[in-house]
Specification:
The structure holds 2 protein chains of 2 kinds. Chain A contains 10 helices and 12 strands. Chain A is α+β, with helices and mostly antiparallel strands. In chain A, helix 7 packs antiparallel against helix 8, helix 8 runs parallel beside helix 9 and helix 9 runs antiparallel to helix 10. The longest helix of chain A has 63 residues. The chains are: A alpha+beta, B alpha/beta. At the A-B interface, helix 6, helix 7 and helix 8 of A face helix 1 and helix 4 of B.
Amino acid sequence: MTDFLQSERAADLLAAEHGPDDPFAAAIRATPMAMIVTDARQADNPIIFANDAFLALTGYRRDEVIGRNCRLLQGPDSDPAAVARLRDAVAASEAIALDILNYRKDGSMFWNALYLSPVRDKASEVAFFCASLVDVSDKKQVEFELGDTRERLEAAVADRTRELSLALEQKTALLHEVDHRVKNNLQLISSLLLLQNRRVTDPAVKTSLRGMLERVSAIATVHRRLFQSDDVERFDVSAFVRDLVSDMMGSARRDDITVRLDLERVDVAAAKAAPLALVISELFSNTLRHAFPEARGGEIFVGITRADSEFRIEIADNGVGMENSAASGGFGLTIIQLLCQQLKARSETTSADPGTRVVVHLPVNGLHH
Amino acid sequence: MTERPLDVLIVEDEVLLAAELEFLLDEVGYKAVGHAMSSGEAVAMANALHPDLALVDVHLQDGPTGVEVARTIHDKCGGVTLFMTANVKRLPDDFAGACGVIGKPYSSHGVKSALAYLAVCLRNGQAPGPPPIGLDLAPAYAEHWGLNDLPRAS
């Protein structure tokens, strides 16, 4: 007996159980969804029933599919992984839903959303498999196109990101290079002033050179501090003051003078860093040089606080006081006045009795209220 | 200092900086034994002069070769290196075997304090306290000189 005849016989048996008056069988024959039944008890699980929708979808005649295994729908581009999943589900007698690329009789392809489930007899043995097939080629096409578009977009985004990262890298490298040059040049200027200071003997020239060196050092300290932090836009004034005071006291070698610091953490815009640093340096240097003449010791206080809309920078001493000091209204004072103007800051000098107190009021956002 | 003055090799391609540094070393009682401007000169001088301390800039006449100079001095010449550079952030995490770094622009006082501090560390094998402002120690040396046992300064 040929496979075909055997399958015909199985189909007849099935039909005998479900005659023309069986509403379930009638529904399956007439539904526009392609459906088949296979005989699990026969070798190689052949198709024993195919409805008209199945024949319309695949292009085969009924006698061309009865007795054949479903794999006649597979072709060279059917995904082997999908085929394997299908085979495993059948072997394990489990239901499975998957999308698989199938071939019609004329060789044209369609995407098949396949649903396969086992049918058990009264003894719970698997007797049949029932499968429904839906042509989802249109949906797949849209999916592929969307996937394509997404891939193109992702590739474009990746390209752009690479360009931007490269540009950022170059910018960072340039920033490092400029930072490096600024620092080296400041070091060079300091060295020039120091070398000349070693040569000259005139005390007036020496004093001038010392003053210039202090100013350059103040700016140098600013640059060292600016790039130490991660935020190059902000400048930590208190950290600067600590560096400056340590440096100036170290160079002055005045063990008879103590410094008291009360520094609140205060940040200003990087653009204000150098002028503010120069003002503070000038004021501190002035106090250090003039408040305590002739080995008269004492204390210098530096305080930074933030109050409402302004920063308050105070430098006070308990030295000889303004009227007794040799402090001149010289170049240093001019610098302070000009830079305060630039910073829109206000500086007040009062008697601390004893000594002098200078307070600089710096508006937080560049404006006085 | 009553001890023998430390022999120092200056590795710096800016001659004016090197000249001022020599004066500075002299003021604090060190002896500048040589001045190299390229990595080749630096390694040759380190081999010939056996300095106690080499002050090394990262950027030399033949490029950013200071890091390799420090590594060679550490591995082959047995001297201690201190970086003096504006490129603090570019130094490798292990400082290439150097004991620390002074960031440029430095001040005379900063360099003097750092050198005085290092002299004590080198002589006693033990740090007298936390390093002065302007000097950052390499992690290995900070541990070696017992700094990790000290309470950290804020």
